[in-house]
Design goal:
Length: 147
């Protein structure tokens, strides 16, 4: 009994190894051909940049965040690409994509949004308040002594 169990076990082990090798070879053969077929017919825009949490909009539709690189399949033609990140100015570019090609868009230089207008508004408002307080104090006598 022990000898027959050992023989059957060895036979199943060989069969398993053989099936694994055949499956592995099949994967090696099929994956590159599928990848080549897909890459030859893809029409897309690839957006990259050092801002992984920046949101991407193409033709007015939200398409995701840049992450480590965002590739969006689009029909051939002209597309409006917008990239936004909180605290930065919106990046806009028009991408012309040819049939079967990938148009690369690198968002390397988002500009910080300017908050100057806020500080000007605060400064002007403060000056008006202080000037008004001085004018009211001066017109009411200012608490001086009269003889």
């Amino acid at each position: 009994m022990f000898k027959s169990f050992s023989t059957v076990h060895a036979w199943f082990m060989r069969l398993g190894v053989a099936l694994a090798i055949v499956a592995w070879c099949g994967i090696l053969v099929s994956v590159p051909s599928q990848a080549l077929a897909k890459s030859a017919s893809v029409t897309a825009i690839e957006i990259t940049g050092p801002f992984p949490d920046a949101t991407v909009t193409i033709d007015g539709q939200a398409r995701g965040v840049i992450g480590t690189g965002l590739t969006v399949e689009v029909p051939a033609g002209t597309h409006q690409v917008e990239v936004q990140k909180k605290g930065y100015k919106k990046f806009e570019v028009t991408a012309n994509v040819n049939e079967g090609s990938v148009q690369k868009v690198n968002v390397a230089a988002l500009q910080k949004s300017s908050k100057t207008w806020i500080w000007v508004l605060v400064g002007v408002g403060g000056a008006i308040l202080i000037g008004g307080a001085i004018a009211i104090a001066a017109s009411s006598g200012g608490g001086g002594y009269y003889y």
